[in-house]
C-alpha cells in the first residue's frame, strides 16, 4: 500500500477555502493530545487558549494589539512570497524600524518638540525597514546570494544593534541600569483609541494596509505582475515583467511594513525601546501569511487568530502553568497542517495497492 | 605558544557542530532537497541530547538521543516535502519554528542542570607533545567523528555507485526516475541522514561545548551550516575549510571581546552573521558563470506512475 499524489486537472477552489479550517481543526486535535501528554486537562487548556480570551473586553483589545504587527508584517511578506522572493528576516526589519523610530523619540526627549515627532518616527521607521530589507534583495539581484540566508542573518545583527543601543548610548539614566530607554514623551507615543484602554491607532493603520494590499493585488497591474512572476516565471518573462525589479519592490515594501510595525509596537503598547519587544512577530507573521493563503483578507483573519493564541498562551500559563513554549509548538504544527492541506488544492491523495504480478507459465 | 594552542583547540571545538550539521545538509542538498530546518533539528537534538545524557549519565546515549531526535524531525520534513510535495522552503521554516518550540518544552526540565562534558582523548606521550599534542591527540570523540564523517561522505559521493545515483537524483530527478531509481526513497534517506547529522551537531553543544542546556543555544548555527554548504559549492573538501574558517571567526570575536579591544561586544558578536552575508555575496558574485548547485535543488518532484 502506498500513498501517491495525483495532479488535479485544475486547482480546487472549494479546498482553497476550507483548507485553513481543516488545518486549524487538525492542529486542535494534535494540541489535545499534547495537553494530555503534558498532564493537563485538554478541555480546560483549550478553553484557556481559544475561548477565555474572547470573553472579556481587555483581552479582546489585547488580541487586536497583538494582531496589529502580525497583520502588517504578514501583508508585506505575502507580497514577497507571491513574487517567489523569500524574505524571512522580517523580525530584523521590525527591530531596525523600532530602533530608527526610537532615535527621534530619544533625541527629542524632554524638548518642546511638537506634533511632528510621531509622524516623523513612523516615516523614518518605514524607510529604515525598507532599506534594511533592500540589503538581501540587492545581494540577491546583483550577486545571486540566497535572500533566505542573508535576510535571516541580518535578524541577529539587528537584534545585537538594538541591544547595544539600549545598554549603551540610549540607556535611561534613571532606569536603575535596566537595558531600556526612558519612557517616550506623549508626542512620541501612538495615541490610544479608547481612553484607558489598550487599543491604539496602529490597528487603524494595519486595517488601511490590508485595504491597500487588497487593492494592489486585485485591481492594479503591479499586483498582477507580482502574482504572475511568482506563479508562472516563464510566462512573466514572455510578458516582459522584470522579476528582479519585483524582488526589490516586494522586499522594500515588506521591510517598510515590518519597520512601521516595529515603531508602532515600541511607541504604542510598549512605550519605550528595550530588548524583547517582539515575541517573534517577524517569524509568526510567516505563519500568518500562509494561514491567510497570501490573501489580504485571509491574513487579517489569520493574524487575529494567531494573536488569540499568544493571549491564550499567556492565560493558559497563568491559569494552568502550561509552558509558553506550547504556543510556539502550536504555531509550528499549525503551519505544517496549513502547508499539508494546501497540497490538497493541487493534488489528490490516493492510496495505491500494488498489483501482484501474475507469473504465467510459458505456453 | 600556550595561547596559540588554546585558540586552535577552541576553533576546532566551535567548528565541529558547524561541520557535522553542514555535512548532513550537503548530502541532503546533493540529493536535490533543500531542508531549511537545520536550526530546528539542531535545537531539538540539543535538548534531547542533553536530556538523554542527564538521565542516563552517558554522553554516548545522549548523542544517540540527539541523532534520533534529528531523524524524527527530518521525517516530518520528508513526509511533507517529499510525500505531500509541499514547498521545501516553507516546510523547512515550519520545521525550525516547531523545533524551537519543542526544544523549549523538552528542555524546560533541564535548564540549570550541569553535566560532565565529553571526555577528551589522552594518550600518554603523544598528547603531551607541545603545541600539536593536544590539538591532534587530545580532542573529544565528536571532533574525530566529524572528520571521519566528512571523509566518509566524500568517499560515498564520489567513489560509490550509490553516491553517483544520489547525485543523479539531485541533478535531474526526471532522468533518475526514468532510469528506474526510486527518487523519493533516495531523497528520504538523504533527508534522514541530514537530520541525524543536525541532531548530533545540536547534541554536541550541551554534551561537549558548554555542559548545560539553554533554550536557543544553537544561536543560528543551523543557518550558518546552510550557508556553509553554499560556501562550499556543495563540495565536501571546501566544506571543511569553510567550517574551520567560520569557527575561527567565532573564536576570534570571543577573544577580541576578552582583550577589550574597545569595540562594543555586540558588534563583535555580530561578526559571524555579517561574515556569512559577506561570504555569500562574494561567492555568489564569483560564480557568475553558471551555478554549481545541484540542478534540481528545491524543485518539487511528483513521480508519474
UniProtKB/TrEMBL annotation, chain A:
CC terms in the record's Gene Ontology section: plasma membrane
Sequence intervals crossing the membrane: 12-38, 63-82, 94-110, 116-135, 147-166, 199-217, 246-268, 280-308, 329-349
Annotated localization: Cell membrane
Coiled-coil features, chain-numbered ranges: none
Entry annotated with the keyword Zinc: no
Entry keyword set: Cell membrane, Membrane, Transmembrane, Transmembrane helix
Protein name as catalogued: Sugar ABC transporter permease
Primary residence: membrane
Membrane topology: Multi-pass membrane protein
InterPro entries for the chain: ABC_transp_permease
A single MF term (Gene Ontology): transmembrane transporter activity
TrEMBL record, chain B:
This protein's UniProt keywords: Cell membrane, Membrane, Transmembrane, Transmembrane helix
Annotated signal peptide: none
Protein location: Cell membrane
Keyword Transmembrane among record annotations: yes
Residues passing through the membrane, by range: 6-27, 34-55, 61-86, 93-112, 141-158, 189-207, 213-232, 239-256, 262-283
MF annotations from Gene Ontology: transmembrane transporter activity
GO cellular component, one term: plasma membrane
Pfam name, any one: BPD_transp_2
Record's bilayer topology term: Multi-pass membrane protein
Highest rank taxon of the organism: Bacteria
Keyword Transmembrane among UniProt keywords: yes
Family matches, as CDD domains: TM_PBP1_transp_TpRbsC_like
InterPro entries hit by this protein: ABC_transp_permease
Primary location recorded for the protein, binned into one broad class: membrane
Coiled-coil region: none
PANTHER family from the UniProt entry: ABC TRANSPORTER PERMEASE PROTEIN, SUGAR ABC TRANSPORTER INTEGRAL MEMBRANE PROTEIN-RELATED
Name listed for the protein in its UniProt record: ABC transporter permease
Natural source organism: Bradyrhizobium manausense
Upper lineage: Bacteria, Pseudomonadati, Pseudomonadota, Alphaproteobacteria, Hyphomicrobiales
Amino acid at each position: 500500500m502506498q500513498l501517491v499524489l495525483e495532479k488535479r486537472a485544475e486547482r480546487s477552489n472549494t479546498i482553497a477555502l476550507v483548507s485553513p479550517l481543516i488545518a486549524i481543526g487538525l492542529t486542535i486535535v494534535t494540541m489535545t493530545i499534547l495537553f494530555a501528554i503534558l498532564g493537563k486537562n485538554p478541555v480546560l487548556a483549550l478553553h484557556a487558549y481559544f475561548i477565555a480570551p474572547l470573553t472579556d473586553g481587555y483581552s479582546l483589545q489585547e488580541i487586536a494589539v497583538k494582531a496589529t504587527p502580525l497583520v502588517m508584517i504578514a501583508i508585506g511578506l505575502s507580497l514577497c512570497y507571491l513574487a517567489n522572493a523569500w524574505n524571512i528576516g522580517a523580525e530584523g526589519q521590525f527591530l531596525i524600524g523600532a530602533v530608527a523610530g526610537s532615535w527621534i523619540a530619544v533625541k527629542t526627549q524632554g524638548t518642546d518638540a511638537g506634533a511632528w515627532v510621531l509622524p516623523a518616527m513612523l516615516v523614518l521607521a518605514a524607510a529604515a525597514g525598507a532599506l534594511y530589507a533592500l540589503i538581501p534583495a540587492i545581494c540577491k539581484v546583483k550577486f545571486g546570494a540566497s535572500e533566505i540566508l542573508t535576510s535571516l542573518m541580518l535578524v541577529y545583527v539587528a537584534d545585537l544593534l538594538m541591544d547595544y543601543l539600549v545598554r549603551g548610548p540610549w540607556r535611561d539614566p534613571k532606569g536603575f541600569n535596566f537595558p531600556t530607554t526612558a519612557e517616550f514623551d506623549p508626542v512620541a507615543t501612538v495615541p490610544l483609541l479608547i481612553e484607558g484602554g489598550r487599543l491604539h491607532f496602529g490597528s487603524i493603520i494595519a486595517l488601511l494596509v490590508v485595504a491597500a494590499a487588497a487593492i494592489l493585488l486585485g485591481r492594479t497591474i503591479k499586483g498582477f505582475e507580482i502574482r504572475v512572476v511568482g506563479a508562472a516565471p516563464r510566462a512573466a518573462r514572455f510578458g516582459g515583467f522584470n522579476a528582479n525589479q519585483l524582488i526589490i519592490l516586494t522586499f522594500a515594501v515588506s521591510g517598510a511594513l515590518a519597520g512601521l510595525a516595529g515603531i508602532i509596537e515600541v511607541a504604542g503598547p510598549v512605550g519605550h525601546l528595550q530588548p524583547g519587544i517582539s515575541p517573534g512577530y517577524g517569524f509568526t507573521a510567516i505563519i500568518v501569511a500562509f494561514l491567510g493563503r497570501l490573501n489580504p483578507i485571509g491574513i487579517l483573519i489569520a493574524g487575529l487568530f494567531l494573536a488569540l493564541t499568544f493571549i491564550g498562551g499567556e492565560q493558559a500559563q497563568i491559569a494552568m502553568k502550561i509552558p509558553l513554549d506550547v504556543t510556539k509548538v502550536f504555531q509550528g504544527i499549525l503551519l505544517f497542517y496549513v502547508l499539508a492541506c494546501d497540497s490538497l488544492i493541487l493534488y489528490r491523495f490516493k492510496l495505491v495497492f500494488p498489483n501482484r504480478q501474475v507469473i504465467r507459465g510459458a505456453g | 605558544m600556550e595561547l596559540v594552542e588554546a585558540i586552535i583547540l577552541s576553533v576546532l571545538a566551535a567548528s565541529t557542530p558547524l561541520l557535522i550539521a553542514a555535512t548532513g545538509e550537503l548530502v541532503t542538498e546533493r540529493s536535490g532537497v533543500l531542508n531549511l530546518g537545520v536550526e530546528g533539528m539542531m535545537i531539538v537534538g540539543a535538548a534531547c541530547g542533553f536530556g538523554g545524557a542527564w538521565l542516563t549519565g552517558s554522553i554516548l546515549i545522549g548523542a544517540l538521543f540527539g541523532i534520533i531526535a534529528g531523524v524524527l524531525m527530518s521525517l516530518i520534513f520528508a513526509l511533507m516535502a517529499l510525500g505531500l510535495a509541499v514547498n521545501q522552503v516553507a516546510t523547512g521554516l515550519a520545521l525550525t519554528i516547531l523545533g524551537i518550540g519543542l526544544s523549549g518544552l523538552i528542555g524546560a526540565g533541564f535548564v540549570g542542570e550541569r553535566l560532565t562534558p565529553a571526555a577528551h582523548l589522552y594518550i600518554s606521550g603523544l598528547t603531551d607533545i607541545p603545541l600539536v599534542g593536544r590539538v591532534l591527540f587530545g580532542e573529544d570523540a565528536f571532533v574525530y567523528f566529524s572528520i571521519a564523517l566528512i571523509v566518509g561522505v566524500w568517499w560515498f559521493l564520489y567513489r560509490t555507485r550509490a553516491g553517483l545515483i544520489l547525485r543523479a537524483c539531485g541533478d535531474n530527478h526526471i532522468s533518475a526516475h526514468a532510469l528506474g531509481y526510486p527518487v523519493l526513497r533516495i531523497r528520504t534517506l538523504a533527508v534522514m541522514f541530514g537530520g541525524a547529522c543536525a541532531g548530533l551537531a545540536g547534541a554536541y553543544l550541551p554534551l561537549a561545548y558548554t555542559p548545560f542546556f539553554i533554550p536557543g543555544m544553537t544561536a543560528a548555527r543551523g543557518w550558518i551550516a546552510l550557508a556553509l554548504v553554499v560556501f562550499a559549492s556543495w563540495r565536501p573538501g571546501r566544506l571543511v575549510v569553510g567550517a574551520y574558517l567560520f569557527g575561527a571567526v567565532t573564536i576570534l570575536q570571543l577573544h577580541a571581546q576578552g582583550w577589550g579591544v574597545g569595540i562594543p561586544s555586540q558588534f563583535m558578536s555580530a561578526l559571524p552573521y555579517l561574515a556569512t552575508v559577506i561570504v555569500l555575496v562574494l561567492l555568489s558574485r564569483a560564480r557568475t558563470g553558471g551555478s554549481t548547485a545541484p540542478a534540481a535543488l528545491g524543485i518539487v518532484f511528483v513521480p508519474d506512475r
